[in-house]
């Protein structure tokens, strides 16, 4: 436990094992389109490159009743979309025995255990006119029940962000990730089987300690198999305090990291284009988020799969749900007509 002295007072900076800050409502954007709702804080996985377990502490799930209350409050305030947020939403777990006695528990029965699939379903039912997204999933915690709930509810977006980090089992093991290449591919097949139209995105780190050319090619192979709709791609650098910082050598040269990152980005661009072009001539349900930065006569919004769509304004306004016919695309954006 660490204490800091401030103006003669001592302040505890240690992580509480129980505090979830459930009733603290964050300040939100004025536009009232999308609101982030935290459902779980911290992370129990100890990926060797990551500072989260040290900066945010152990996993603590938030009271489901306060989550539902906040979602309903956001709907009344005029928000259109909720993103359920956590470092690892799939490991959300709440024991009903801890629910406050004075709540009217219409949705949650006494003593019931609420996992992420149940919470997702409760939120989807509680605010049926809002879009629901969630972020971030972990490949080794995602259950079949979560996939079935996504499929079942029209207001849950058909998009999963599933960080893979590397396609090499050797590197995944050095990263202390709990999944292997084979586990990940098995899960991707299952997702596509249960939700055929589901968009997939991921995080990839290139140039992690000891990554050789063969390991890099394994990542490219995995990308070629999945063909993600989009990815967040990073070049590895040590983070102070992590296991990798203390125990592993950052031994891939900067020029190699940059070259591998360029290869990964270029491949992702071809996959993004491959995915986008499939939308042409389809009708997409779009939530309008704002005015296009490139043309003030156009709005931008997102479809269920989290693709950005640009289209002429015409008889619509920010915050509307509308149907757009996709007529063109780039690797980054869909273009359409109302
Ligand atoms: S990378 Fe994600 S799963 Fe791994 S320790 Fe960090 S927050 Fe947790």
What's the SSE blueprint?
Blueprint: E1 3-6, E2 9-12, E3 34-38, E4 40-41, H1 52-55, E5 60-61, H2 64-77, E6 81-85, E7 93-95, E8 113-115, H3 116-126, E9 131-135, H4 144-152, E10 159-161, H5 169-174, H6 181-194, E11 199-206, H7 213-226, E12 230-235, H8 243-247, H9 254-277, E13 283-291, E14 298-302, E15 308-312, E16 321-329, E17 334-337
Parallel strand pairs: 3-6, 6-9, 10-11, 11-12, 15-17
Antiparallel strand pairs: 1-2, 4-5, 7-8, 13-14, 13-16, 14-15, 16-17
The chain binds iron/sulfur cluster.
Computed Rg: 21 Å
**What's the order of the H and E elements?**
EEEEHEHEEEHEHEHHEHEHHEEEEE
Beta strand count? 17
Mean pLDDT: 89
Shape: globular
Bound small molecules, deduplicated: iron/sulfur cluster
What does this structure look like?
About 30% of the residues lie in helices and about 25% in strands. With about 350 residues, it is α/β, with parallel strands linked by helices. It folds into three domains: about 20-155, 2-Layer Sandwich (Transcription Regulator spoIIAA), CATH 3.30.750; about 160-280, Transcription Regulator spoIIAA; about 285-335, Beta Barrel (OB fold (Dihydrolipoamide Acetyltransferase, E2P)). It has a five-stranded mixed β-barrel. A three-stranded parallel beta sheet has the order 3-6-9, covered by helices on one side. β11, α7 (about 215-225) and β12 (about 230-235) form a beta-alpha-beta unit. α2 (about 65-75) runs parallel beside α3 (about 115-125), α3 (about 115-125) packs parallel to α4 and α7 (about 215-225) runs parallel beside α9. The longest helix has 24 residues, at about 255-275. The structure holds iron/sulfur cluster (SF4). Iron/sulfur cluster binds next to α1. The site of iron/sulfur cluster has 10 residues, from α1.
